[in-house]
Amino acid sequence: MLSSGRAAAGRAEAGQPAAGPNERGDEVTKARPKVTVIGAGMVGGAVAQFLAMRDYADIVLVDIVEGLPQGKALDLLEAGPVLGFDTGITGTNGYEETAGSEVVVITSGIARKPGMSRDDLLKTNMGIVRSVTQQAVQHSPDAVLVVVSNPLDAMCHVAYEAAGFPRERVIGMAGVLDSARFRAFIALELDVSVEDVSAFVLGGHGDTMVPLSRFSTVSGIPLPELLPADRIKALEERTANGGAEIVGLLKTGSAYTSPGGSVVTMVDAILLDKRRILPCSVLLQGEYGLHDLFVGVPVKLGQGGMRGIVELDLRDDERSGLQRSADAVRDLVGAMARIDAETTASA
Q1: What is the rounded CA–CA span in Å between residue 61 and residue 41?
Q2: Distance from C-alpha of 28 to C-alpha of 207, rounded to nearest angstrom
Q3: Where are the beta strands (DSSP E) in the chain?
Q4: What is the Cα–Cα distance from 71 to 77, expressed in whole angstroms?
Q5: DSSP state letter for 203
Q6: Counting runs of H as helices and runs of E as strands, what totals does the chain give?
Q7: Is the pTM of this model over 0.85?
Q8: Distance between CA atoms of 331 and 206, rounded to whole angstroms?
Q9: Domains in the chain and their CATH numbers?
Q10: Active site residues per annotation
Q11: Whole-number Å distance between alpha carbons of 284 and 281
Q12: What are phi and psi of 165, to 5 degrees?
C-alpha cells in the first residue's frame, strides 16, 4: 500500500507531527504552507487558480454563499491531473479549516452599484472586511494579511484595526497590479516583451495613483529615452484608468485575471521569502512625510510580510502627486470614522 505525502500533510493539520522520521525511520513529508482566500468570487477564484498552479501551498477558499467555495475548490482539484499540480484545495463556509494559515488573502466586498453613494459602499465593505478579518485572525493569529477589497487603501485600515497585527503583516495589493498595467501598456507601445519592461506606480489604488516614468525602464533604458513626453503621459493616463477601461468593456463585472496574478506575486514573495521590491499599500509612519495612512510605496516583501520600505528621492511634482493620493485616502478614512460614529450613535 502506497503511503502518500499528502496524507502526511493531512495528519499534520490534524495535530500530528508534520515532519521527521516515522517508526520505520522513513522521512515524513512536511506539511505545505496554507493560504486562505476569503471571497470565492472572480478575483478570489483567480487567486486560488494561479496559486494552485504554483503547487507549493495548499488553499482554503472561504465564502458566505453555500456551495460556491466548495464548487470552485472541487473544479480546481479536478484540474490538477490535466494541469499538473497536486495542490490541496478546500472550500468552506466557515473558518475552522483556515486555522494555521500563513497568508490570508481578503477579496470580500461588493462593487459600487448604480445609485449607490460612496458612503453606502464604504459602510457595506467596512462591515464585510471587519467581520472576515476578525474571524480569520482568530484562527490564524500569525498570518500575513493581503487585502484586495475596495476601496483598497481604506479597507487596509479596516483590516489593520480589526486584526490588531503589526503593520508589517497587513499589506494591500494595488501597486503590483497598477505597475503591471503600466508595464503592459509600455510593452504594447514599444512592441517589446513585457519581460524587459520594469515600471513603478506609487500612491493610492485609483485615479490618484502616481506612475513614476523616470523609474521605469526597458532593459535598463529609462523610458524617457525611448518615448516622447506626450506618449508617456498618455500611457500614464491609461494606467490610471486601467480598471475602469476593463469595466467599460465587460459591461458586467471587473478585472479578475490580472488582480489574481498580482496577489500571487505577493504571496510568492512572502512564502518563498523572495524579498522582492514591490509597490504595496502599507501603513506609513513617517516615511515619505506621511503618517498613519495606508499608501502604495516600494516595499521589500518576504517572510513575515513587509521587511522594509524603500524611500525614493522624489521630484517636487512626484511628491505633490503622492500627497494628493494620500489626501484622497485620508478623506476616505475620515468618512469611515464618521460612518462608525453615526452607526454607534444610532444603535
Answers
A1: 10
A2: 51
A3: 20-21, 27-28, 34-38, 58-62, 89-92, 103-106, 144-147, 170-172, 197-198, 201-202, 210-211, 217-218, 221-222, 276-285, 291-302, 305-309
A4: 10
A5: B
A6: 10, 16
A7: yes
A8: 13
A9: 30-172 (3.40.50.720), 175-335 (3.90.110.10)
A10: 205
A11: 9
A12: -85, 160
